[in-house]
Design a protein that fits this description.
The chain is mostly helical. The chain has helices at residues 2-21, 34-42, 48-77, 83-112, 130-159. The protein contains five helices and no strands. Helix 1 (2-21) runs antiparallel to helix 3.
């Protein structure tokens, strides 16, 4: 059951990204490397400040949805009430989502889908390097040790209601 839940959780993550990207990477330019965004500004394709603001406007509700769903899966669907189990499940979900994002989204989907190619940016690399993905995902894996504590605490509080 946990494997199915993790797959569904990652699918929700990808679906949210697909909904915002729609059929053009310009809709999610804020996901691209910093150098790419700066080059898009130089070419007159996008404004960096507006792009980053758009990214914040997406990321806030996105993170809220992702964390609320995670808390609901662990507390309601799985019926977890103890901190240790909640922590382990939260960490597992977050780490799998993190690496799925880095490998499946950043390296596979972005690299092999024309959706992410932005007209006017030909010749500018936009796919995150394996080194970048590994460093970023490794740091997030450590950060999720802390975030899972918060999620587990909320799950335990819900279990007391």
């Amino acid at each position: 059951m946990l494997l199915l839940q993790i797959i569904l959780y990652c699918l929700l993550f990808f679906l949210l990204v697909k909904c915002v990207v729609r059929d053009n990477g310009i809709n999610c330019l804020y996901f691209y490397p910093k150098e790419y965004i700066e080059e898009a500004q130089k070419r007159g394709i996008a404004d960096k400040a507006a792009t980053m603001k758009k990214g914040r406007c997406f990321m806030v509700p996105f993170c809220i949805i992702i964390f609320v769903v995670l808390i609901l899966i662990i507390s309601v669907w799985n019926g977890v009430k103890d901190f240790k189990t909640a922590y382990i499940q939260a960490y597992l979900f977050l780490v799998v989502m993190n690496w799925a994002d880095g490998i499946l989204l950043d390296r596979l989907w972005v690299a092999h889908s024309k959706i992410w190619v932005i007209k006017g940016m030909e010749g500018v690399p936009y796919i995150k390097s394996w080194k970048n993905v590994l460093i970023k995902r490794s740091m997030a894996t450590v950060l999720y040790l802390i975030i899972a504590l918060v999620v587990a605490g909320i799950v335990v509080l819900i279990g007391k209601i």
